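Tutorial, part two.
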Amino acid sequence: MLAPKSRLCLVAAALLLASAAGCSDLDETPEQGLSRTDLVADLATQLAGAASRTYEATYQLSGGRTATIAQAQKPARAAYVYPGGKVLVTVDATTECRTTAKPATCTMTSPATPTSPPPPAVFRSADAKGMVTPATVLGLLNRAVLDPDLEVDQHDTTIAGRHATCLDLKGVDGAAARDFGTCITNEGVLGSFSGVLNQTQVDVAMTHYADQVADDVFAMPKAAKLIDRRGS
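Running the prediction step on this input gives:
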C-alpha cells in the first residue's frame, strides 16, 4: 500500500497486534478455536501483509460513487483515488490532490518514514468522502485488539471473486468507530467496510480486483497546480 519504509510501520503494527493477542487472557473454546483477540489480530496481520503486493482495487461507495486503491513495487508507490481527490505515496513525497477545483491543486509533503508515516490528515478528506483507507481500518483493528470486552462475529464470503474473512465488531472502546464490520481478502486486501467515521456512515465494497496496475493511476492530474512543502 505504502512506500517501503512506510510498510515497516504497518508490519510493526501487525507484530504488536500479534503480541497483544498472545498475551490475552481471554479463554479459548473448542468451538471457536481462536479467542476474540486472536481473530482480530490475525485479520490485522493479514491486512498489513498486503503492503508488499501489487494490485488495483475498485470500490463501490455510498450513493453510487467509486474509488480506487492501487499499489505497485520497483519502485514502490501507492495511489488512493476518491471523489474529489487523490493521494499519491512514493519514496520521494506524499502528494495530496484536490480535484474539485480547476485546475486541480496538489500539495507535496515529505515522504513517509518508519518514524514519520503519512499523517492521518492526509487521508482525512478521503475518509470524509466516503472512502476508507486500509491504514484507517488497520488502526481500528489495532484498537479493537486491546479491548477485552469486544463482541466479535466472524464469517467468510466472496467479494469481487476473492475469498474474504469478515469480522463484525461491537463496542470497541476508544475507537473512531465503536461498531463496524470489515472483510479482508486472502491476499490481505481491504474487501469491504461498514461503520460510522467522522460522524458519517461509510459503506465500501470492492467490485474489481487486478494483480496489474496501469501506470497512469500514479500520475498527478493534468495541469495541476503543484505546491511543494517538503522542505517545510
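Confidence is low (pLDDT under 50) at residues 1-32. In part three we will examine how such features are distributed along the chain.
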